[in-house]
Amino acid sequence: MPDINNGILDRINVSDPKRWLPTSVKEMRQRGWDSVDVVLFTGDAYVDHPSFGAAVLGRVLESHGYKVAIVPQPNWRDDLRDFKKFGRPRLFFGVSAGAMDSMVNHYTAARRRRSDDAYTPDARHGMRPDYPTIVYSNILKDLFPDVPVIAGGIEASMRRLSHYDYWQDRLRASLMADTKADLIIYGMGERSIVEVARGIEQGMSIDELARLPQMVSRVPVDQLPEADADNIILHPYSECLKDKAKQAANFKHIEQQSNRYHGATLWQSHGKWAVKVTPMYEPMTTEQIDASFDLPYTRLPHPRYKGKRIPAFDMIKFSVNMHRGCFGGCAFCTISAHQGKFIASRSEDSILREVKALTQMPDFKGYVSDLGGPSANMYGMGGHDESKCEKCLRPSCLHPKVCPNLDTDHSRLLNLYHKVDAIPGVKKSFIGSGVRYDLSMHTNGDKRHDQANMEYNRELIARHVSGRLQVAPEHTEDHVLMLMRKPSFDLFNDFKKIFDDVNRSENINQQLIPYFISSHPGCHEVDMAELAVKTRDMNMHLEQVQDFTPTPMTLATEIYYTGIHPYTGEKVFTATTAEMKQAQRQFFFWYDPAYREGIVKSLKRLHRPDLQARLFPGGLGYIPKVARPFGDRKANSQTSRFRNENNSKLSHKRRK
């Protein structure tokens, strides 16, 4: 395995084409190759960094001896020369929409087209189609019908079975119904893509490859097995179209199997054929995840971009992802559906090597922007008794209360922070990922454990906050939080007291940035009015907020579409129209005179003069003195997009 130091620390020949996976025939020939084994197509720009999926899979294949080329953001509207330029690869084509679902990337919660794309040079929009997985795969199959096309990435992963598409407002079939791709690899793909390459090299058929873990394939419907412990037969797509309750029932199985240590195979018929989804691999070992992160990435955008700015790269340039997976199980998040709920942590040595590499980058100023993961403080955590975890079907280890089998000791994380800060060249390391305060504040009665967690919170606030600490209470009302699988807002109040106390004792002035969501399933207009009153009483003038956006394969999305909770069968109210959503969202901005008339009308209609009096104690003409708001509206649109993208490699930048 190549040493990371030979990749990142040697900056002298970074423009040498041999330091990059080729993106053109010229670069391929500069490597002395006449052809390649695998060509990877991606909707993102090519950034050779472990946070970008195409770079990771390309480097992993390269480390196993395969010749790999990357075609970033191919032009699908011309004569298709980008799809033809490398010709026929020896093994297969790989296709990914990129690090985000394309519809989240392209459209706002109001279904308006975005004007920028964070994964494109200079944020230029229009460099990828809607549903690139379908478009790219179908082009390749038309051009090279006998070459296997393997799809993957967040878009394919989250759309692997029937799913609600918010932007088309309809239930779509599995992506396998629309793409000509032979297989879909779902979840994190390092192990799968190497097994596929080996299998094709050895002459295995698509049917044989489809038996590997984390594969989505088509089979004739008459090959559906009998339901048993190892095979779950979902309701057919045609029946889900007619009966939303059956779609909801399907989701319960999908979520449970995505979070099982040893899952069952899922089957769903789509007319004359069926979709087969094999179980996930077991969680990666430390050695396996180290092997992926320790590859010789240049950590830079490809020289073809000639210094153009790629916003997504800027966001993670000096950050370090320490683990994968998330056991939070938030209702609106798909991390566990893609990465699983079990934590796969890198070794300290691997993390420290990467930090040392950062210090050698020419524009590094001494500040590590984030030591994080999908959630900042789950590194190294898991069950005390793993045999219990292997049998568990809970989608969350934290909700409705912290699992007694979960090791929540933060001392290992604290020790790692200390080692990072001791590296020459590091002035300070920050925690930019969202912190699960319900996890860091958890006590179990063990004196050493409880002391470590208390020290973690205080040191986090005093030493690792870059002016702002992001946390995500999401709402204030208990019944909404219960549907979100989030803790009581009282716990946020307790954490804020710690935050304020540390700021006073350390003589620092930092911001606590809480994220909130409107229009989440179960949330009524009056709940948003209560949220406004409670946050006003805390002198919070919120701007880091978002309107709930349904994305494929989340519990909240299934409730939004079906109106039914998949686990209870109970009906759940959800704001679905633009008018209902705006009526909720306006309460975030109670302090803005532009929203006052609408808020007052809403409160009169709700017959809640008491809430009006608490929001506007000085009367309707009263204009509150607005302190520095919690967040920045200009930054909010970009933050919201990253929060919703459910992306496979940049997910460590999303708050939990």
Structural notes for this entry:
This protein has 656 residues and is α/β, with parallel strands linked by helices. It is 37% helix and 12% strand. The relative contact order is 0.11.
What can be said about this structure in brief?
This protein has 656 residues and is α/β, with parallel strands linked by helices. The chain is 37% helix and 12% strand. It folds into 2 domains: 4-214, Rossmann fold, CATH 3.40.50.280; 318-653, tm_1862 like domain (pyruvate-formate lyase- activating enzyme), CATH 3.80.30.20.
Could you name the key traits of this structure?
disordered N terminus; nine-stranded mixed β-sheet; 2 domains; alpha/beta; 656 residues; disordered C terminus; 37% helix; pyruvate-formate lyase- activating enzyme; Rossmann fold; three-stranded parallel β-sheet
